[in-house]
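User: Need the bound-state model for arginine:
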Amino acid sequence: MRKIALSLLISCFSVLGIHADEGMWVVGNISAKVDSILHSMGLELTADELYSTEHPSLNNAIVQFGGFCSGVVVSPDGLVFTNHHCGFGSIQSHSTPKHDYLKNGFFAKKFEDELPNEGLFVLFHIKTVDVTDIVLGAVPQGASDQQKYAIIDSVSTRLMQMVDYSGKGIESEVNPFYRGSKYFLSVYQRYDDVRLVYAPPQSIGKFGGDTDNWMWPRQCCDFSVFRIYADKNNDPAEYSKDNQPYHPMQYAHVSTQGYQDGSYAMTLGYPGSTDRYLSSYGIESTMRTTNDVRYQVRDVKLNILREIMRNDDAIRIMYASKYASSSNYWKFSLGQNQALDNLKVIDEKQQLEKELAEWAAQDTVARGKYIGITDSLKALYAECYPMLYARTLWSESNSDILNFVIRNSLGRRSDDFQKAVEKAYKDIDVETDKKVFLALLQNYIKHAPNGDKYLPTGIINKVDSLFGGNYEAYVNDLYSKSIFARPDDLKKVHDFDEVAKDPMVEAAMDVIDVYFALRKSNEWERAWVIEEYERLLGDGIREMNHDKEYYPDANFTLRLSYGLCKPIDFAPGTTGLKEEATSLMTTPRSFLNKHEQNPDNYDYRLIPEAYKWMKKGKFSKQYLDKNTGELPLCFLTTNDITGGNSGSGMFDGKGRLIGLAFDGNWEAMSGDLKFDNALQRCIGVDIRWVLSVMDDYSHAKRLINELTIE
Ligand code: ARG
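Assistant: Bound-state model below.
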């Protein structure tokens, strides 16, 4: 397949309806070759309408949302669609047991009711410039790694400083691509007043919860709505009640025309991170020293939280967001390991590495630098294994209070200690934290690699000498004596130094010592050498297959992924209607089916209003699918997707919004490390499901009226 000429490749796409479309292409650096693929597959926009530095183009409607998600601007008054799980933290922060927006949803009936969110921002992409020659050109031959990175750092900083800082929220970033073989400068405009406008009830927006997460078939209406505000000149400004809705230079039109099996689909958004060129040894290491560890520790923590949250509304709201983000990658870790095994990804990588070795051996002069890479990687990963394992274990094992104290002890103090306390403790319940602290401490000690350097010996000695080895007694004593377990008293403290002798600080110091020991270890340094070999391996593979166009790994810069609307031939379809596992979109029938057939599953519970509405099934006619006559809920495309893409606009060939991307599928959870052509899918929420929930369920006419619906 790899060597098939372009024209043949194109006809394959259309005639055979090829399955999945690997690639996250850099918007602003799309090659003619990729551009012609886009158009042959069904894109009708010109390259200029997609991305231009001269006039408004579709890329100007895409935002990076809050540093963790994507979003799309959909109205001349700055309305932004993103996922429900992206808006989750904001929705939570405004929720109380009395005004439970998580549970019941939220709709601002007028502009003044839209809720500001401290710290939430969006970035608009302005342009992307290839600066590889400038950055790497500044590194002299023979520079050491250390010198090299110092030079790259200072050149990048200078480049960023040269970007016009007009004070209008312009900011820029130089990012390494292909692990530093290339560098691009991205320029953004940042808006800091972003308000919550609408959220569906969680039982609709997050229907299926952890049970369905990372899986198809799916029914959740994973969207929420925000609005960007600007000053009276339409320029970025900090929150002020005098700010006005922002008028964007471009906003996306919405289509209720739908799609069919084989229709063009394209996502635009901010994929966070993939490691598709990672070596077989790197994959093995990820499985054992990241995924296994993360899954194990989070399992302990989430079991404790789940129990408490279900029995207490206030605590449920407090921990909702932390729980969701922790459980998201808890399940991911399990799924990624399973898929890596099932799809034999390590074998496949080893085969590729073997090919590289053979290719390099054919010309030892020109390709000599690629010889022996895998042996070096094997040895390096083996050497670093305990350190990498301990590093993940350490970073996963601290309770919220401990983390807060660690951050402050390390000098990363906010100027305003009281404000920091206020913010952190808003979402901490001390009794819950204490349970987590004890469980994670014992779990850490049980699972830490052999060797004192990985253990908090200060704490262990104390437990042994003062508490007869009883960890619970130690933790009870700690929490009874520490001011960090008494939020009301802590809130009166002005400066961290006043409490620096607190027993919780002492505990934090013991824990920090372990981290410092890790950092000082030889293996920590060696992990950097791994990076260099991994980069070289990627370079070698690209050079060996120089006729193939490689996209760079995701790094949270604006990317385009092209593909088709396409069901998956097989899917386990563990829950819900079996036939929907292999269909292109899901329906209200399968939504109700999941709910009704699984009365004991918390993830399928509905608030009564939502149940009544779905059961009645009176959806506006314009939102029904023309072919099936049913309301389409979620759908599948072959677009390449990873974390960070959440909230990405999904567009048809005319550049109209047909959905919002929100997930990937279980069968291909290895996707961040190796894209699977047959199995990988992007799961999106159909825009007609979004519109119906806003319009039919919430009667949010004022928002619907802002959109341009085609
Ligand atoms: N797996 C999705 C992502 O990483 C999150 C989906 C949120 N839904 C959920 N049930 N947790 O973006």
